[in-house]
Specification:
With about 300 residues, the protein is an alpha/beta fold. It is built from eleven helices and 14 strands. The chain has two domains: about 5-130 and about 260-305, 3-Layer(aba) Sandwich (Rossmann fold); about 150-235, Dihydrodipicolinate Reductase, domain 2, CATH 3.30.360. The longest helix has 16 residues, at about 260-275.
Amino acid sequence: MTMISVVVHGLGNIGRHAIAALEKAPDMRCLGIIRRPASLGTQAQDLRGLPDFADLEALIKAKGRPDAAIVCGPSRQAPDDAARYLAAGLHSIDSFDIHAEVPAVVRRLDEAAKKAGRVAVTAAGWDPGTDSALRALFEAMTPAGTTFTNFGRGRSMGHSVAARSIQGVADATSITIPIGGGRHSRLVYVLPEKGASPEDIKARLAADEYFSHDPLDVRFVADQAELDATADNSHGVLMERIGSSGLTSNQRLCFDMRIDNPALTAQVLVSCTRAAMRLTPGSYTLIDIPPVALLPGERMDHVARLV
């Protein structure tokens, strides 16, 4: 079995779980972690014995050139990080999660990937990501109809990171609450910086792309301990479609899962790293990738086992 060598970019919630998922992958090995220089040498337990480096050049000098980079930094930085790894000759895999901006990111990374002769897989989490593939399958089964994707209740990593980036916010946790019919509200717990204006923080949150489309409730906490009590990683989705197959109506399709959010996101990234090795140069999302390409081993073995 040919081993795929991987570098993980970032050691946040997703990066830590990506390391664990790579340990369990029979066809992959992690060469190391790329982190901010100020973070090097910290979080030894999370590194799980792997070396950390300030940049790709240092990692290559010490460990050799990896095949792919799993980008686990903040979502808004993912397209720039992915483009840099592509230019360096690596496949890139990220979980960019701003739905409305995904088409533009795909086009940008497609150009960069083809120029480098490499593969970019973007929006490779569970939503966008595997849920996107399920929505496509639901539409193939019932072409006329309506799909409702209801998230939560649970902590949204992307929304939490976006809230932390707001001026005056020391730390924050964003909880997604399903209203029904594919609509959601956002409950954001905020630990403000000393002297920050609560009203200014609320206004900035309400104007942010992550929060501007949904009902928003902002609650301020007094200290880190109070905020940490809200920061559970559980999340989930209930996807429902009512539609018709041909001339037959009242077809109901349903998918329900309850998960640890960063662990599942990291696992999807690792599976997409495998798929990147099997695709022609260009940029892809989960709806573009054959499911069998995500699995270790031989295609026909999976055909015999799963079909």
